[in-house]
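pipeline/complex-builder :: batch 7 item 3
reading input block
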Amino acid sequence: MKFFSVTALFLISFNIYSAEIKLNDPKLNEPAPNFVEKNSYGLNIQLSDFIGQPVILEWTNHECPYVARHYSEKNMQAVQKAAEKKGFIWLSIISSTPGDQGHVSRDQANELTISRNASPTHVLLDESGKIGMQYGAKTTPHMFMIDAKGVLRYKGAIDDIGRGMKFFDASFNDSVNYISTQLDAVLQSNELKISNTVAYGCSVKYDY
Amino acid sequence: MKNTLLTFSFLLCSLAIAAPVNTGHAEASLITNLQDTQQESFYLGVRLKMQEGWHTYWENPGDSGGAFEASWTKDEGIIIENVEWPTPVTIPYPPLMTYGYEGDVIFPFKVFRAIDADLSIVSLKFSFLICADICIPEEAELSIDLSTAKPSQMLEQTIQNLPINFLDTKTSASDETITIKFQAPAIFSEAYFFPREDGLFTYTSVQNLKQIDDETFEIAIPALTSEIESFSGILRLDEQGYQVKETLEISTPTMSLFSAIIFALLGGLILNLMPCVFPVISLKVLSFVSMGGNDHVKIRNHALTFVSGVLFTFLLIASILIFIRSSGAMIGWGFQLQSPEIVGVLTLIMLGIGLVLLTDINMAKGLTTIGSNVQSRNDYSGSFFTGVLAVVVASPCTAPFMGAAIGYALLQPSFATLPIFLALGLGFSSPYLALALKPQWISALPKPGAWMETLKQFFAFPMMATALWLMWVFMLQTSGDALIQLLVLSLALAISIWMIATFNNAFKWIGLTLTVVAGIQFFTNIPVNQIDLEQGASNSGWDVLLESDLQAQNQAYLINFTAAWCITCQANEKTSLGRASVKKYLVDNNIKYIKADWTNRDENITKSLSKYGRSGVPLYVFWKPGMQRSKILPAVLTEAILIRGMQ
């Protein structure tokens, strides 16, 4: 009996958390979940507006050391440029709750884009974390690729460096970038060779 | 001078207990449990005192974060191993889950020192990710002078509490949930399984715990994929962690009862061609020939009797296997040869057959009917007995296809075991069944004549060769002394067969009687290797976890599960594994070659075999980095098959 009550406690203690915030896990090679959110200029941006063009989603948080390194070494910018050249729409999404790390105002978001010489098509301010949970975004960075038909083709890490402190010593040149190496396959609406990897980085700062 | 020395050593002392380094949100220091300067192995520990609310990560950080990096600077004579991770805690950041450590944590590193290596200063660059709701990479340059360092009680405590023990577990998978059944070594209230490998399990999900009986529990861990073959991690029961390393059975679910039966039929058929069986079988065929091609009814009846002898023996073996299995022991095909008594008796049987073939014992009542004058009396017990004998001499052999089928059979409930063994027997005896259906086929064989006598005598030699090989097995299992005794017994057997062949009165049986008596005496007092007697002992030092360890190290490997009594194994070693070209290929491609010797009873090897759905040898397992799962190579190898299999 004692055992059951303890087990029950154990279960409840977890359910408290999972009741409020739940991450979905969108299925690969199926239509990507649609969303509407304001961008850094206050305009409503809807994913379905981009049908006909491939889209990349990048979860970001400029204060996260992992993201910071991708930007300070111009790695993220290089991937953005390569994608745009091939006609991709690039949406940088910030799911940090107001007051938490990485949360920015519209102006700050635009300043960051300019100062870092980044070139996202739009920066979306997902303060409620709704899009993040829809896509199951766990870390910054966390990447998703959607083809021109609106089909989700990739979810996961930006490259194969992976977690841990080894990230900070690893060379981007020696790594395999899962986004830039698979742009063509997404353009052709193919299933990807590597479509599902474990994203690494800081946690997305949802409201908990 | 004395003063300067004093000051100097005082300086060193103060260096050794150097003040902890403040990294921003933690204090880091390097400690040791080195007690005296003669110790060859001890621990170094990195102590991290984190500020309230901050944490760092376990080797699998969960949904975000990452493990630390340590880079050591030290003398050559000192080897510092990888960190031995303390039991982590769950640090939930809903909807994410991370695994790590809070507060004051010590990471122990095992150190080995060459006996002549001086104790000196060891330093470390320790970089780690420290997080509250935000994450910051921090770093500390730490050093310790081992010649003066004081042993730390806290480090000792941490080492005591490391999750070093393995639990008795059994894992099953259904859909996308892995269930670990375990025996709890102590009363506990909370359980959580921390998976070590990334990308196999969901971290946020609830792990359901269920009590089966007093000490048996089941914890269900939702997985990300239904294709998990092996995983490891730490099962935390309250404060104590236990190592868990599991491999899920691979081939069992991939084979259906139907295909197992097909495999058994094929395997049985091929078994006829195995070197130890072929002579006996051939003699049976010859006896059909000598009956003449005319008496079809007689041929049919003898063939059917022979078949029933074969089937009877296979079913008997199956029943024995089921019986042994029901008593809980791990068994496999060929297990009977792990007993030196049986090997010894088989040696004598093989030798006896060989001698009978060579001597002038009237073949009409001779070999195929040992001990009973069958054909002359027109009774069929001889044919039946030949069937039994054929299976007995076949027992050391595993033919291709057979391994997989028997492996499957032994992992199934009894109702599936019996049909597979029956199929094996039917496959084995199918040529004779065909003969029973169409006795006229016998006329296709050459007419009986003097050539038959010559061929019979020739067949004595493969039988004696088999006896020789069994003697070698016997020697490996026992000792040189025991082998000599077996040889003496063989001599006695030879004499008694000569007596049977030479004398014509009651006197002729005296030799055999004496030999049998001596044989009983010998086999009941056989000096067996002591280790064998311990139940479940592993005397080969085989580690069931070896494979996952090697995979973790990205080390390609080829494992040869073999036994001295397995003739197919021996043949493979001669024709392929032992060849220079193969050895060169292994070296050139950095493939580790491992031999798992199952000559003697070994619980651990049996366990490993059963993971591949096998219950006997040979089994060749190959893996190299990049492969999803290890690969089973064919049971009969050639250089080409082997090398192609590894490409």
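note: Residues 255-339+362-441+449-458 of chain B form one domain.
queue -> next item
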